[in-house]
Amino acid sequence: MNFTFNYKWFFSVVFAIAIQVLFLRDIAIANVAFCFIYTWFLVKAPMQTNPLLLLLGAMSVGWLIDIFYNTHGMHAFACVLVAWLRPVYFRILTPANGYDERSSISLAEMKWLWFFPYLFLVLMSHHLLLFTLEAGDWTLIGYSVLKALSSTLLGMAVFGILEFFNRPE
């Protein structure tokens, strides 16, 4: 992992937060599918990222989103959960010959059979916790699961398109 990649990753995180806060805050499809593009930093964080730094970064980004969404820590909690579960997802999805030490998380390098299940696990765990906390009542669990599933599918489509345009030449 070289310095230019960290530099590029940092600015893509800032750009994703700006897009989320400025444009995607009030956009929903049928009031059940929401695009949380800021989760892209959790998906694309390098595999070798120090878990403590990732947890702190997840807390910071989630808290920043919470400030603009007025959600009192729900985004921060969901981001920290995903950052905490990421190593578990890597162990679940480990290829037969293991990960290459230079592997980056991308559709071009990991291929769709690894990338999309990983993306589904990350987004579904984030969205399910977020919408369950938002509901605040177990009577709304069905609606929360519907919102989580539809937002996950929308996120997978958007992130798949982003990966398509982010391919190496």
Automatic annotation (TrEMBL):
Species this protein is from: Aquirufa regiilacus
Keywords recorded for this protein, A-Z: Membrane, Transmembrane, Transmembrane helix
Lineage: Bacteria, Pseudomonadati, Bacteroidota, Cytophagia, Cytophagales
Transmembrane segments: 12-40, 112-133, 145-165
Protein name, entry field: Rod shape-determining protein MreD
Domain of life: Bacteria
